[in-house]
Structure formats: C-alpha cells, structure tokens
C-alpha cells in the first residue's frame, strides 16, 4: 500500500483500488463500501496520514536493510548469481528513491563495486558499470569520480573488450550532454589552467 485513503464509512483502502471500485458503478448513487457494504453518499477520499507515515517509515527501514544485505552479499561474493542479485537490488533501490544513492555511496560501496570491474563474468562487469553510472548521476562530486572509473574501464580493452565498449558508450553519451552543460565547461577550463 502506497497511498492509503479513508472513505465515508471509515474503512481504509489504497487510493487506486478504491478509485477503480468507484468507477465500476455507473450510477454514483449505487456506490457502496466494498468491506462494510454501506452505501456511500460521497466519493471524497481522505488521506490516512498516520498509516501513510507508518508505511513510509517501514519502506525507509526496509530499503536501508536491503542496502546492508546487498553490501554483505557483495563482500562475500561467493557466486555470480549472488553478485548479480545484490547489484540488481541496489539498482532498484537507487532507482526508486534517489536519496538511497547517497546512502549507498556513504557506506563505502563504490570501492567494493570497483572490485567487480575485474570479475570473470561479463554480466557482472556490465551491471557493475551500470550501477556505478547510476550512482554518479545527480552527484556533482560523483560525476568526476565516475568518469575517471569509466575512462579506466575504457582503456582496459585488452582485459575486457565488452566492458570497455560499454564504458566508451557511456562516455560518448556524457560527451554529448557535456557540450551544453556549464559545469562540464568549468571542469574543462580548470583542467587546462
């Protein structure tokens, strides 16, 4: 449940679910509460603030726990599947809530992740590069470090042509964006002084 709302009868539902329920009735006078069967005079939905706060707090704790579990799994790295699942979970946690990127970076995951750039599996190397790229997004300091990592991966072509090619693609995309970005222009000027 993401958006709990209470209807006139006092029952609480997910907003999208109760809205779909209301839409099933052609005549607004016929709408009844699905749980109590009480006829509803109003379609007004009131946010259940207490339940929403509890859900949000639980999600936050759950995401923090998932990050810690992924870190432990990557530290053990006993199987390729374990590594892929941990990195995939980190990618999802960071995609769903950008503030989780800060948490992942702050607990020292980047040095741990860079170890997987030399992993024997091409899939692991690929998802690692993608996660590092994702972690560098929206972080001014991280962009420069991420770019340096991508450059390093790009020039390791003799070790891994696939990862080198992916790093090159990401750098080319960054280059296209950089032409119009003033922060990149500042960085380029600073490096030529």
Q: N- to C-terminal separation?
A: 55 Å
CATH architecture of the largest domain: Alpha Horseshoe
Q: What would you report as the Rg, rounded to the nearest angstrom? A: 24 Å
Oligomeric category: single chain
Number of strand segments: 3
CATH topology heading of the largest domain: Leucine-rich Repeat Variant
Could you give the order of strands across the largest sheet? Answer: 2-1-3
- State mean pLDDT (0 to 100 scale): 82
Q: What ranges have pLDDT less than 50 throughout 5 or more consecutive residues?
A: none
Percent in helix: 55-70%
Number of domains: 2
Please give the largest β-sheet: 3 strands, antiparallel
Give me the number of helical elements: 9
- The coarse overall form would be elongated
Order of helices and strands: EEHEHHHHHHHH
Structural class: mainly alpha
| Name of the CATH class of the largest domain | Mainly Alpha
Report strand %: under 5%
